[in-house]
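Lab notebook, bench 4. Still working through the backlog of constructs that have no structural model yet. Next entry is a single chain of 77 residues. Request: give me the structure tokens for it.
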Amino acid sequence: MNHYVIVYHRGRGTVLEEHEFVNAEAAAAWARRDALVADTITDRDVEVVLLRAPSRADLLKTHARYFESFPDILSAA
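Model written out:
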């Protein structure tokens, strides 16, 4: 499983940053997430998440809300 750190701007509905780490880099992924949370803690529109998925393609399926617009998600349903 890979680790993905996503910095998402809720108001704009866009990914500001995306970082991918292989399974062996789990500690580095958590450290990156923690640093980004510390950097953005005062901005209520910014969400920082760490997600795990076998591949980025899987991540796009399971967490589409970070990568697609709301109308796109609704039209695919």
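Notes after review: Residues 64 and 73 are 7 Å apart (CA to CA). The first strand starts at residue 2 and ends at 9. Flag for follow-up if needed.
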